[in-house]
């Protein structure tokens, strides 16, 4: 089983990254092959809205997105981790999601649906205890997963993580991330 983790934080080794790493390590210990990708290390340009993907579901922009789409398409489980920025997901994740228009075209216009059962999870962190921030982020990620034919099966919300290394010192969140990693491969 292949588990792909996408860290959407602009901070490498920040709270989202730490919790995602814990989940992926847990999945790996249970026998899954896991990989983490940090969006902040990739060049993903915004969607141009030029409809070039309408003919065949392929985007014409030359950047790191085609390789990322291949990894997403080949994984059995997808875990996305993002901090809350301005009440929603990060710009890095939103840009990636917008570029998944090609997946939307393949599914809804070209009728190419996934033929296998795939599951996903969403880890979201915030320094505030405002559940609406998590709701906004979750709704956006749910749409992405629906387009990708991935069932959102697990969510993890961690409050009060302000400093870039807060998650590393929050045993409750680390334990929840560990359990998420184990559970996602057994769904």
The helix content, as a percent range, equals: 40-55%
Order of helices and strands: EHEHEHHEHEH
How many whole angstroms does the radius of gyration measure? Answer: 16 Å
Tell how many strands the DSSP assignment holds: 5
User: Termini separation (Å)?
Assistant: 12 Å
Low-pLDDT residue intervals, each spanning 5 or more residues: none
Structural class: alpha/beta
> Could you report the average pLDDT, rounded to the nearest whole number?
92
Give the percentage of residues in beta strands. 15-25%
Spatial strand arrangement across the major sheet: 2-1-3-4-5
What's the short story on this structure?
With 187 residues, the protein is of the alpha/beta class.
Characteristic terms for this protein:
187 residues; 6 helices; globular
Walk me through what this model shows.
- It is a single chain.
- With 187 residues, the chain is an alpha/beta fold.
- 40% of the residues lie in helices and 18% in strands.
- It has six helices and five strands, in the order E-H-E-H-E-H-H-E-H-E-H.
- Strands 2-1-3-4-5 form a five-stranded parallel β-sheet, sandwiched between helices.
- Helix 1 packs across helix 6.
- It is globular and about 50 Å long.
Fold topology:
Elements: E1 2-7, H1 15-29, E2 33-38, H2 65-74, E3 77-83, H3 91-99, H4 101-109, E4 119-125, H5 131-147, E5 151-158, H6 171-185
Parallel strand pairs: 1-2, 1-3, 3-4, 4-5
Helix pairs in contact: 1-6
């Amino acid at each position: 089983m292949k588990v792909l983790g996408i860290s959407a934080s602009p901070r490498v080794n920040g709270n989202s990254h730490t919790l995602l790493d814990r989940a992926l390590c847990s999945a790996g210990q249970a026998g899954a092959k896991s990989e983490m990708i940090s969006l902040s290390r990739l060049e993903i340009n915004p969607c141009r809205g030029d409809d070039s993907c309408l003919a065949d579901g392929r985007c014409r922009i030359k950047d790191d997105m085609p390789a990322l789409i291949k990894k997403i398409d080949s994984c059995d489980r997808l875990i996305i981790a993002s901090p809350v920025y301005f009440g929603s997901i990060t710009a890095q994740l939103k840009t990636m999601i917008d570029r998944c228009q090609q997946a939307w075209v393949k599914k809804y216009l070209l009728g190419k649906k996934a033929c296998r059962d795939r599951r996903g999870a969403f880890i979201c962190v915030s320094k505030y205890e405002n559940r609406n921030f998590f709701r906004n982020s979750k709704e956006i990620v749910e749409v992405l997963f629906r387009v990708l034919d991935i069932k959102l099966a697990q969510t993890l919300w961690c409050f009060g993580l302000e400093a870039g290394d807060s998650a590393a010192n929050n045993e409750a969140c680390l334990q929840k991330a560990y359990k998420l990693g184990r559970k996602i491969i057994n769904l």
